[in-house]
Amino acid sequence: MHIAVVGAGSLGTLLGGMLARDLEVTLVGREPHVGAVREGGLSVVGVEAFDVSPAARTDIPESAELAVVAVKSGDTAAVASQLSGCALEACLSVQNGMGNEATLAEHVDCPVLAGTCTYGARLERAGRVAFTGRGEVVLGPPDGGTSDVADRVGVAFDAAGVETTVVTDMPTRLWEKLAVNAAVNAVTALARVENGALADGPAAEVAAAAARETARVARERGVDLSDERAVSLARQVIRDTAANRSSMLQDIEAGQPTEIDVINGYVVTVAETPVPVNETLTRLVRAWEQGNIDGE
Prior knowledge:
Layout: E1 2-6, H1 10-19, E2 24-28, H2 33-40, E3 42-46, E4 50-52, E5 55-57, E6 63-69, H3 76-83, E7 87-93, H4 100-105, E8 112-117, E9 120-125, E10 128-133, E11 137-140, H5 148-159, E12 164-166, H6 170-191, H7 204-220, H8 227-240, H9 247-253, H10 264-270, H11 276-294
Parallel strand pairs: 1-2, 1-6, 2-5, 3-10, 6-7, 7-8, 11-12
Antiparallel strand pairs: 3-4, 8-11, 9-10
Helix pairs in contact: 6-7, 6-8, 6-9, 6-11, 7-8, 10-11
């Protein structure tokens, strides 16, 4: 199976590197990272250490059996348009936020799968990614149900050593992922701490409260997600990726726009009742963006 990983940042690079141990992989990203991979291969360090040599480029290839989309949600529309010119058999989103699959489906002529990925990763430098926490990929049709395409992707990922579960309840899984991201991303970004700092101490209850609010909004929208389940999942990810610096923290450290609007901000937008913790986190991150990005 030839897999194009579109969005070779921290997570995309780690996932692509793991898949490249058994499959043909093309990393699609930015210079100087893809140039370093193309010239000297990719080094993975940390929880597991190995070297692989996937193809690497800045543009999307003409064809691939599977496109794994790992770009920031704000870039989904542009990437979807570019993928429309790529001959694909399937497309899998492992992005944060909600609605990415629908955007992709508007442009690509193939089945689109939804996915979550809880592996921890940090891009240390061009050509080198740190594997900071074990996790799994969960995937399936975005509206739920079964899919032969999802089954084939799951088998291929498992064969490459990526722990993968194919599910029929992806809508619930997406809300579970949103609850985890709402709990972890903004809190770690604002406090400038690694995920493990949310296991206990002053920030732990803020994270738990954000997860509980997200679960309540999920139930408002017909998804059976209990407060206890949402908090438990968040705490499990926090433990499993304790040494990881969340994607939103990495964005802030790099002075880049965050995905706050499709995580905590999404909870605020669709909530039918007040969600004060998510609203506060959203406003604070937006204030940082306004002062550090919009105001430049």
